Amino acid sequence: MKNFSVPIKYSLIIAVGLIVYFLILSLFNLHIYPLFSLFNGVIMAGGMWLALKAYRSSKGSKFKYQKGFMASLLTGFNATILFTIFFALYATELNPDFLNNLINMWRTDYGTDIGIVLFVVAVMGFATSLVLTLAYMQLFKDSWNTKEGQEHTY
């Protein structure tokens, strides 16, 4: 369980950050504009960076690239799942008119419903998590620009 403590802790922090940001936008009725969801990436990026740093410092010299990759990916995926669950509850129970306001022009033309919107929210979160993990792990991988690394080249 100790191996999963960093991803769980930081995914909860990220999910809370995303939910609070969404609720702040809803206070000003700005949550119906998808443009504001761009800041979700900033929240995810910051949280995943902190999670990866915490995981690396907890492992010290035993830090492995593959384990760091999985810790970062789990952090983003768990946060995405938690936020998608909140989004589903908000759109169906707390504010049933939310979807009508969010996709008022699409509602009549494309027949979108809550399922497709939740799918898009989840896919956006998973894609963001994967891209950030791939980018961050480039910073944490060992360099082959050493004498030991040069032995492994052609």
UniProtKB/TrEMBL annotation:
One Pfam family named in its UniProt record: DUF4199
Transmembrane parts of this sequence: 12-32, 38-56, 68-91, 114-137
Protein name per its UniProtKB record: DUF4199 domain-containing protein
Taxonomic path: Bacteria, Pseudomonadati, Bacteroidota, Flavobacteriia, Flavobacteriales
InterPro entries: DUF4199
Keywords noted in UniProt: Membrane, Transmembrane, Transmembrane helix
